[in-house]
Amino acid sequence: MKESEETPPCRWGGVGLPLALSAQRIGHGLMAAGRLALDLALPPRCPACGVVVAGDRQLCLACWQALDFLDGPACTLCSMPLVQHLAQAQLPMQCGACMADPPAFCGAPAAVAYGDVARRLALRLKHGRRMGDAQLMAQLMARHIPALVQQAALEPLLLPVPLHRWRLWSRGYNQSALIARHMARLCGVAYDPALLIRTRATPVLRGKGRRERRAIVSGAFAIAPQRLGDLRGRHVILVDDVHASGATLRACAAILKRGGAGRVSAVSWARVVPSAIMTSNIFDFAAWDSDMGR
Questions:
Q1: I want to staple 177 with a disulfide (CB 3.0 to 4.6 A). Which of 5, 130, 160, 173 is the partner?
Q2: Do residues 209 and 241 lie in contact, with contact meaning Cβ atoms separated by under 8 Å?
Q3: All residues at 6 or more sequence positions from 162 whose CB lies less than 8 Å from its CB, including other chains
Q4: Under a CB-based contact definition with an 8 Å cutoff, are residues 250 and 105 in contact?
Q5: Over the stretch 129-152, which tens digit does the pLDDT of each residue have?
């Protein structure tokens, strides 16, 4: 080949490669310097208590240790942790409430038990507009998704528990949808924030008994018009911030099953686990700050 016909040097080859690498290193150095300057001016803080921590969306050691992760044996339907003597049996078991009145969902794990730190994070996300906290919650909730997906040979779909449009307009966002979006990215699972809708506004459930809560949310949810075809045969995984009595999740799951979902599960950030669980008085939820004033 003649010299004039030779292929010109590749942009990233020959002399061009060292120059490109140098420019890349300079760019990385500038970004690191910018992050350092920002951290010095606005150091990352624990999202629960506000003390300075090593990186963004990290809990301090004290707050991390205060979280009670729910990883032990639990009811196969509602995922309520089992009392110790039942857990030691190492057999699939259901709690008394699910045996008496089974929910339409199968498996509803939560990342942590509902306590001071978990509640603080949920309130900051919901009412404090700390939307970055949704990513931290999603990371801790996402570890339950593989087990839920493996239990059913169906295509999974993440659905956030919806807000009524009036509340969505006043708040500006749905905290459960923010969490679900991050979880979908982390787990590689499909996510649809519009398939399940809330058809009417409901009063705050805090302080209500279990029967009253179920009556309040009965008929409050529906499948979006023209969307039934997107639901049939899917494994729907509901995403919520707080699981208390389960009235909201039960109502959503019942609608989804009637709409053709092949399986319904749920995953939450925090689960109300009464301290009375060790004394068999498990299901008195009326005094708990449940469903966080949805």
A1: 160
A2: no
A3: 174, 176, 177, 193, 196, 197, 198, 221
A4: yes
A5: 889 899 999 999 999 999 999 988
Residues 6+ apart with CB under 8 A from 118: 67, 112, 269, 270
CB 209 within 8 A of CB 175: no
Cβ within 8 Å of residue 139, ≥6 positions away: 57, 182, 186
Residue 232 tokens, joined: 């049939």
Sign of the alpha-carbon torsion through 108, 113, 114, 118: negative
Report the amino acid identity of residue 254. Answer: A
105 contacts 238 by C-beta, under 8 angstroms: yes
Low-confidence ranges of the chain (pLDDT < 70): 1-41, 83-92, 207, 275-294
Query: What are the backbone angles phi and psi of residue 226, rounded to the nearest 5°?
Result: 65, 15
Block residue for tokens 């009524």: 164
Report the distance separating Cα 126 and Cα 94, nearest Å. 32
Q: State the pTM of this model.
A: 0.79
**Both tokens assigned to 29:** 């150095």
Query: Half-sphere exposure (CA, 13 Å, Cβ side) for 193?
Result: 16
